[in-house]
Structures are given as structure tokens and as C-alpha cells.
Design a protein that fits this description.
The radius of gyration is 14 Å and the shape is elongated. β1 and β2 (63-69) form a beta hairpin. α1 (9-25) packs antiparallel against α2. It has a three-stranded antiparallel beta sheet, covered by helices on one side. The chain has helices at 9-25, 33-48, and strands at residues 52-58, 63-69, 78-83. The chain has one domain. By secondary structure, it is of the alpha+beta class. The chain is 37% helix and 22% strand.
């Protein structure tokens, strides 16, 4: 069985831009510490292509973001937001 194709740098960049714009669209500001953390993880992923998973807290929003950055071309990068606590006012 041939090896599965890997995402290209252009594919990873396109997915990164899409996901970061979507975070902003749903109300997460680009200066929020969680957003900055996700952006750093995604920048590293765009450059090195290594698969990566982590959970990033958005305490002010009462959410955790589950970040999944795959290396395989048949898997899409994703950010799933989970409610963990009421938002901190």
C-alpha cells in the first residue's frame, strides 16, 4: 500500500487562514491569549508540517479549543470549542 499523501505547505497555510478567520468571526479577538497561542501552534505547523494536537483554554469565554493539525492530506485541520465553565466577567 503506498504511503498516504502529506499536506503541502500551501494547503496548511490555507487551512490556517480559514480557521483563524473563523475564530474571529465567532467572537475571539486576535489579541486574546488563547487565540495568540493557537496562532503560534498553527504557524509552526504551516512551517514544519508535523501533526499536532492540543487543548487551548479561552478562560474569559468559558471554553477550551481542541486543536487538531494533521499531516495527512485526507484529514482537515480543525478547532472544536467545548464549554467548560461559565465565562469569566
Amino acid at each position: 500500500m503506498p504511503p498516504l499523501p502529506q499536506k503541502t505547505k500551501a494547503d496548511r497555510l490555507k487551512e490556517t487562514i480559514r480557521l483563524l478567520k473563523e475564530l474571529q468571526r465567532v467572537g475571539f479577538h486576535s489579541t486574546d491569549p488563547g487565540y495568540v497561542d493557537i496562532q503560534a501552534h498553527m504557524t509552526k505547523w504551516v512551517n514544519d508540517g508535523e501533526a499536532f494536537k492540543t487543548t487551548v483554554p479561552f478562560m474569559r469565554h468559558g471554553r477550551d479549543a481542541e486543536l487538531d493539525l494533521p499531516s495527512r492530506a485526507d484529514k482537515a485541520a480543525s478547532i472544536n470549542l467545548k464549554v467548560v465553565n461559565p465565562p469569566i466577567e
